[in-house]
Amino acid sequence: MNGRGLLEGGVGGALATAAMSAVMLAGSRAGLMADQPPKHIARAVLPGHPHRRKPGEGVLGALAHFGFGMTAGALFRLVSRGHRTPVPVGIGYGLAIWLASYQGWVPGVTALPPISADRPGRPAVMAVGHVVYGITLAAVLNRFRDRHDR
What we know:
mainly alpha, elongated, DUF6789 family protein
């Protein structure tokens, strides 16, 4: 795999993260979750009490969220070796990220409770957001693949 493939994966991950973030904002506006999870994660890892607001947590959370999404996109592109991605595979990838994160390391850093112990709104919004991430990532990477085939 060349650098162009990793770049394409990163671009796909950034666009997929933007689409997922729109779902998250809609969920917040609908009252299904109070704060964005990336802000909770930044709050938990910054020095001080893990659940008290800290300066810069919103910006740090957004940067980390996009960085994570871009890295996950590049990793997916690396694993797929540039082959076309069926949309259900993208959805599965998005949901796997959600489960590994929100049932695993996110509660591990005490940012949020695990999915099984959280309020119903946030897990539902985050699951839909990760489905949108997977669909968008597959679509963008397939578009890159189609351009290479021409």
